[in-house]
Amino acid sequence: MQVSLRASQSRTRLLQTRSLLRIGGTRAFGIGPGHYKQRLVILGSGWGGYGLLRGIDKDEWDVTVVSPNTYFNFTPLLASTAVGTLEFRTAVEPVRRYAPKINYYQAWCDDVDLKNKVLTCMPATRPPNAEPTGDGTVVKHHNPNGEPFHIRYDKLVVAVGAYSQTFNIPGVKEHAHFLKDVRDARRIRSRILECFEQANQPFLSDIERRNLLHFCIVGGGPTGVEFAAELHDLLHTDILRHYDKSLTRLAKISLYDVAPNILGMFDQNLRKYTEKTFSREGISLLTSHNVDKVEAGKLFVKEQGEVPFGMLVWSTGLAPNPLVQSLQGVKKDPKTSSIITDDHLNMIMEDGQANEDVWVIGDASKIEDAPLPATAQVASQKAKYLVKKLNRIVNDVEHKKPFEFHNQGSLAYIGNWKAIYDRTGTGAGEDGFMSKETGKMAWLLWRSAYFTMTLSWRNKILVPVYWFMNCM
């Protein structure tokens, strides 16, 4: 009878433990009385989420990260990796480098129950025995068990970022390449080489070759401009060395934008300098052009009609993350659907009150009455601010200082060892020291900035090594 009772008690304890794990109690054991650590859940592993993960005190917080990516993308280097100037590993940092001090789940967060502090998540891994996709992508909601899982939180940081904006133009998602992830860069690099190999076939006419070697870029922001510059460098270095000159002469780069100018956030003189540089290098700038639809190998432009292409790269801004769109009872920006926060980065509810347990940073957020650009610089500074705040909170120390953005200027590479640097919006003034730079000096600033921003010592070594190798 006594043995039976003990067995029953053991089964009860086992079921209670499983129940805790089911609701995300991943550290329900091993923490003695008086040593309970509050659970901080970070959604996303981008500039905001990963920056917070790096600095947060993991000895004081029970940290859980939920992200569909097992790594952080160093986005400024993606254009370089797409053309082979740098290797893909130089643009990523693994999230699990901080395990076992943290819990990490490769998953999407589908819903946030703000009242009960429970997250509903869906695995972002392929089901066992599933057919490989070839590029490692995962189709959402393919959970082998057919059920979501739940995670409880004490404090929550939403840093899920944003998606690429397509403006619901037909065919963009099916036929265009994006450049927000290292997987995108890998597909772009493969497609560039494929276009040249296809054009090299002996049975094609020059018109067919010219169409295959027409590289179109839609979006005149820093990402589109830098990719056009990196692609131009590739065509006039490695491609020129390894392919017949009669073939490489047929290659063409066209940059489209609906705005009247490219690089709208830069000083007017810097924009003109870039436009002149691109014109000399043979890059076609087609501003004030509207794309109506995209088909396989065809771009339909209102001002031009049908435009054949071999590869299309789409870089036209940001669309809201589905999680942000699904949140109810939260104040959002009517134009961008970004979550509105106060100057302490706390989520603001529809009733105007701040949620003291939830912070939103990165491209998914917007500070009320203080709009800031959706850039890596802003997200990174918000993450650093929140690190200080949360590390004080966990030690019962007040942190009343609001977030302040310190603009460090804008950089863009424009090809052939040239770049532009703009600090005119930072308080430096039009004639301040190094308020505007172009050419080789700006290129040195661009290189040094990206070198110092790379996070791990491994990449601090690898990036300049690959740059040096490409100069040889």
UniProtKB/TrEMBL annotation:
The record, for SUPFAM superfamilies, names: FAD/NAD(P)-binding domain
The UniProt entry, under InterPro entries, shows: FAD/NAD-bd_sf, FAD/NAD-binding_dom, NDH-2, NDH2-like_C
FAD/NAD(P)-binding domain span? 39-383
Q: Which residues form the External alternative NADH-ubiquinone oxidoreductase-like C-terminal domain?
A: 408-470
Cellular compartments per GO CC: mitochondrion
Under the GO molecular function aspect, what terms does this record hold? Answer: NADH dehydrogenase activity
Question: What keywords are annotated for this sequence in UniProt?
Answer: FAD, Flavoprotein, NAD, Oxidoreductase
Q: Give the residue range of the signal peptide.
A: none
Pfam families, sorted: NDH2_C, Pyr_redox_2
Family to which this protein belongs: Belongs to the NADH dehydrogenase family.
- In Swiss-Prot or TrEMBL terms, this protein is called FAD/NAD(P)-binding domain-containing protein
State the species of origin.
Coprinellus micaceus (Glistening ink-cap mushroom)
